[in-house]
Amino acid sequence: MSKSNLLCIRKTIQYELDYLLRKFHFIQVLLSLFFITTLIIISLSDTQSFFLEESSPIPNSWTIFRNERMATIISIIVISLSYVIPWVSYTLASKREAGQLSIVVEENLIPAIAIELNALKKRFRQKFHLSENIRITIFIPVRQNFFAWKFQMVCRTKNVPEKELLAKFSLNEGVVGYTFLKNKKQRIEFINFANSASLPSSYRHLTDENKILINRNIQVVLVAAVFQEGSIAGLLAIDSDNSDNILRMEDKSLHDEAIDWIIARSGAIRLLWRTKNNV
Fold first, then answer.
1. Which of these three, 95, 114, 141, is where a domain ends?
2. What is the DSSP letter of 139?
3. Domain that holds residue 47
4. Residues 58-80, mean pLDDT to the nearest whole number
5. Which helix (H) or strand (E) holds 268?
6. Among 139, 199, 211, 233, which residue carries the largest CB count within 10 Å?
7. Claim to verify: residue 241 and residue 139 sit in the same structural domain
8. What does the pLDDT look like over 185-212, one tens digit per residue?
């Protein structure tokens, strides 16, 4: 198995565990179980006495409730429900809140970031003398299934067709995956497709399905992947199908500005990740 595939598997496991911890709040669940157990131990005798003592309002003829074993079972259920019901109510309220947040993100945050991307494109064009057809997009990891993660485009400039939003890239696929798996602090990669001989040996080409969705004429891609927080990651991609942009996009100043831009939007990346992964 190649080093790239091993790293991809490791990342997938890391992402899945981090996602499950964020999704199901295992620490909170363990604390809740501890609290319920403690509550039962402390309150059990008092609750049992309600059923078993002579002064109990439960009639003696109701033998099922006056039985010590049944009284213990009912007491545990009553004590547990006193905590479980509020917890379920809180969980349902949290899900409603997450749904409302998702709507806000879809209707407000994504369009706002798209406006910023178009402004960034305009600035790059003017400052680095790039052609009109440069495109800028943002990718984040999205959970597809159990232990299955793929990168998906979530924001784009106006000149990126909607069909490209449907493309889903494996963690080691294309320039996005290649950049993501690079083991170095400054995760920025520049790939020149005009010269196929210059492609890295570990570069994995797009799947046939993604080739249909993504612009086949792309000549150059620059990807900045610097924001990492567990399974939350943000990648900024700049591409062009004009070979005149190749040398200009190698400018280190452009690379620095791309990195600074995505770092400054780490909060937005977190919200996008939460929305797309229902966390």
1. 95
2. E
3. 3-95
4. 69
5. helix 266-277
6. 139
7. yes
8. 557 888 888 877 777 777 888 999 999 9
